[in-house]
User: Which sequence fits this backbone?
């Protein structure tokens, strides 16, 4: 059955969750692909396939091109492994050591006191730059930072859980009647290096973006960086050394601190396999589209076509599969589109298999966001297990 929207309708229902920082990379690459007129296929957990008109195809996971290997991504999410590889390559890093929340918590407290405050506390496994506590000035703040890490990652506010290739098989812990991370859960204690905090985005070995991030990347104070004369070359040398030490990664976010004390020698304080475009989107969204195109190009050979659909309102053919209740899904998605100023016409094409198809008339950006939200958090409890989007001028 079809469901036609009423223009200007504003249904009185709770709005679905929007694009979270963990979704941003995949959403922006998806936008770039649709703006180029490419066909896309989206699977749960932001697995995106892109099909060009010339028959070429590529894939991304959370915005990471398929040129990044699973082994490279896994190693970079293990901070002990990563620090070891960077240290062997002679890349400057802060002093630091890992401890467990169970047996070695006391040793961690003594280590932080001996090293001297301020220190940084971060998980030793998982998405880098996330759940990091900076600027810890005393023992009470240190204890509070470790206590926060007792909460399982899935229950931490605004946390992300990509954790490629890392499986937690140990038994969860318990404290005061609540479930905690396993007693063997490890965290890293590092000295906090003082100076200018910069984030470098590296794609295929080239530094394509530099941002100043006072207080760290998630402080909300990121801005364009203007490295001091002569420091740009040092940043590029450092990025090259990190790329060489951590092979198998098409994309890297490298966080460094530069200060006059270190002679403008960048000290690497964090590395992530993800671009984390959410940082740029908060301060200069116009720049994000270009960075997303660079990520898309990394997964494809040759030059990308012009982003002809970037701001135009055009028709996209959409097909969903694995919808549990398709008769409910159709009106909810259509009404949500109306609330966002997007025209959506859908119909159930196979109720038994949960197939729904139709047309979205909107920009590439809004169309990508809509489909990504449906497969991530859903709309009013309605989700899908697969979605395909085809620009109408492309033969179906």
Assistant:
């Amino acid at each position: 059955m079809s469901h036609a929207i009423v223009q200007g309708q504003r249904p009185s229902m709770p709005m679905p969750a929007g694009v979270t920082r963990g979704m941003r990379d995949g959403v922006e690459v998806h936008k770039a692909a649709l703006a180029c007129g490419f066909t896309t296929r989206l699977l749960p957990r932001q697995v995106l396939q892109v099909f060009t008109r010339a028959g070429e195809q590529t894939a991304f996971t959370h915005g990471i091109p398929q040129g990044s290997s699973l082994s490279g991504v896994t190693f970079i999410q293990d901070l002990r492994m990563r620090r070891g590889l960077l240290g062997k390559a002679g890349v400057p890093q802060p002093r630091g050591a890992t401890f467990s929340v169970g047996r070695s918590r006391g040793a961690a407290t003594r280590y932080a006191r001996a090293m001297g405050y301020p220190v940084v506390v971060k998980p030793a496994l998982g998405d880098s730059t996330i759940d990091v506590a900076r600027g810890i000035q005393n023992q009470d703040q240190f204890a509070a930072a470790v206590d926060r890490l007792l909460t399982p990652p899935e229950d931490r506010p605004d946390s992300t859980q990509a954790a490629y290739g890392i499986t937690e098989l140990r038994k969860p812990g318990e404290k005061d009647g609540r479930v905690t991370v396993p007693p063997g859960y490890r965290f890293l204690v590092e000295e906090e290096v003082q100076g200018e905090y910069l984030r470098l985005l590296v794609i295929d070995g080239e530094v394509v973006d530099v941002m100043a991030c006072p207080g760290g990347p998630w402080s909300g104070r990121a801005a364009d960086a203007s490295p001091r004369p002569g420091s740009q070359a040092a940043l590029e040398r450092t990025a090259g050394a990190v790329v060489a030490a951590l092979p198998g990664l098409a994309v890297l976010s490298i966080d460094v601190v530069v200060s006059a004390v270190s002679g403008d020698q960048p000290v690497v304080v964090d590395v992530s396999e993800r671009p984390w475009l959410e940082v740029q989107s908060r301060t200069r969204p116009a720049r994000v589209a270009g960075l997303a195109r660079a990520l898309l190009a990394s997964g494809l050979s040759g030059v990308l076509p012009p982003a002809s659909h970037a701001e135009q309102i055009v028709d996209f053919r959409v097909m969903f599969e694995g919808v549990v209740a398709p008769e409910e899904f159709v009106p909810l998605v259509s009404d949500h589109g109306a609330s966002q100023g997007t025209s959506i016409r859908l119909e159930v094409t196979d109720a038994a298999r949960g197939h729904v198809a139709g047309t979205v008339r909107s920009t590439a950006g809004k169309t990508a966001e809509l489909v990504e939200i449906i497969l991530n958090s859903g709309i009013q409890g309605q989700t899908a297990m697969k979605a395909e989007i085809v620009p109408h001028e492309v033969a179906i």
